[in-house]
Amino acid sequence: MADMVSIFMSIGLNEQKAKETLKNEALSSTLKKAIEQARGLLGSASIDKTAGTMLYNMVTRLKDSTRLSFLTEYIITRKINSELQLSAALDFIKSHPQENLDRLQFDAACGVGVVVTPEQIEDAVELIIRKHKDQLLAERYRFNMGILMGEARTALKWADGKIVKNEVDMQVLHLLGPKTEADLEKKSNLELKPFLHKICLLFVGEANTEGKSLMEQLRGEALKFHKPGENYKTEGYVVTPNTMNLLKKHLEETGGQVRTRFPPEPNGILHIGHAKAINFNFGYAKANNGICFLRYDDTNPEKEEEKYFTAIKEMVEWLGYKPYAVTHASDQFQLLYDLAVDLIRRGHAYVCHQRGEELKGHNIPPSPWRERPVEESLLLFDRMRKGMFAEGEVTLRMKMVMEDGKMDPVAYRIKYTPHHRTGDTWCIYPTYDYTHCLCDSIENITHSLCTKEFQARRSSYFWLCNALDLYCPVQWEYGRLNLTYTVVSKRKIIKLVETGIMLALLSITDVLVGVTVAQTTMEPHLLEACVREVLNDTAPRAMAILEPLKVTITNLPTSAQTEVRVPDFPANEAKGSHVVPFSKTIFIEQSDFREVMEKGYKRLTPDQPVGLRHAGYVISVQRVIKDGCGKVCELEVTCASSDSVEKPKAFIHWVSDPLRCEVRLYESLFLHKNPEDPAEVPAGFLSDINPNSLTVIGSALVDRSVGKAKVFDKFQFERVGYFSLDPDSTSEKLVFNRTVTLKEDPGKI
Question: Where do the Glutamyl/glutaminyl-tRNA synthetase class Ib anti-codon binding domain residues begin and end (predicted)?
């Protein structure tokens, strides 16, 4: 096993990923073959990380193993060297199952050998800009720039996406000039800032919600829902002879107020689906002048932990909501038990001795104890309560058939696990099917909002309340929110944490997709766009260098050191500023210097000066210094006041006398769009982990303005991205996590 781990690590997989891969025997075997074939092609040369990642991605997605050596050859010989080409190659193979592939057709389909020159990119973008020129001039920066990128990528299929994006940005800037104050004004439909209150509510059906605020959308939804006290007008609601009396009493107790609840199980990490539930429940109540409870469904003591209780409450508050009250299902354990006794007395429940394995699935044989005498069930239920049976030996079951055909769901089961709140008081615990609707009734909930997966439980919800002659709320279902390139399952997220793949989960929740009862699947870039919009207005600027290149300014004295004032928000300098040092030695990004000039490159070269942001200087290269391996390690430059020289083509960021820091760059955790889909990932979601989902840069530099930052403080590192200070930071070394890049990367997975 150790040898296999070493083999997999030799192509760039980290140790954890290598070990995870070994758990999948078929994947491990195929990957080993691909590595052996690659080594055979390379001879003594090693497989670099880029090729290794391509090999891994290919193996995890390849359906026809007979094409393994064919694709390995193309990857190792650099004929296929991008994700776009690999996807095209796999699609071609899938649609051409014949034994002998036509290599010319394959090469053409995959862009093999295609070189897109800077001139071709420039010309293609120029045609697209010309096509939309009138609309661009009219709408300026409010024009949907995605249209330009879409057309550019179509025209330049095999071009580097980043280069295309840079060319589009440059030509738009050339046409329109810098953004004016009018360009920077926000559109009226973005009035819901800040981040906490702009969150989507994801549920209103097909209605046109364009231009409507969050509260307007939710008040509109009230027109589709029943009014408090008019539960009986809801389709499918069961009316009994006592329904109207119960509704009258309910109105007397609530005053006709809308009452909702967010009822999470405190047994795992919240994800973006919970953000939708939080916003819908709290937002619907708020929009209709109602109240919302935070109720912990703490009926399974084996899986509940205090850290989850705390994290859930913090998440609700982080999203900007304050619960009317924080309650627990366990608050009602005695009342729930008393109601279970009443249910038995009414002939609607019985004690059953069928084992757990016999109750799984949908073709459960009828219980031979279904018609046992009421007094017998009461006696046995009391013995369950007193701990006179073993776990799994007996259960209390309800006499009803659910919509999905499941018969007689369990109401109570035995668990000899101390409860975090009630200790050893109880050894029997109610199930979700029993507890949920009764707690809703006890709290006088008007609208029990839940995801579509609980639709099959609606009839049991109504049945149980009516069987006990209690006030019956109305259950309404909305579509679950899914997100591509991730998983939204607490069980699977916990598995990722336990295996060390994911150390934490931040639920990104600022989603602008309107409200819909249909199941919603979102692309990550929509979330990222909303995050950028918020952080652009709230994260102060700083300068950081991820890959430093030393620059010595030779015409400044050694002792020279001045201070440069940098605005925290360049678009609104009234919001404040900070000071950074400027001295003879500065550091710039390695990518901001090229020794050989290329067409379209605007930054520093031996023949092209560049400006330093905020400093008021333009620098020109005098000498390029290299190390023993021929790599550029230092530049000697001269500087001149920007007022005294011609305006440079570009300005770059820099740092002087900086702080050293660690920077963590995060990418998609999974390689495929739908990692839970067996058709896309036959080996399961754990086999689909992106080996490059985390890059750690241990020797980055950042300006001293962030030196007193607190954990979770957020910054925009100019020209780099948005970052947050990690709790791992120490006084000796700050650690920053990238939240999102400055702009969407069109070449991103």
Answer: 539-639
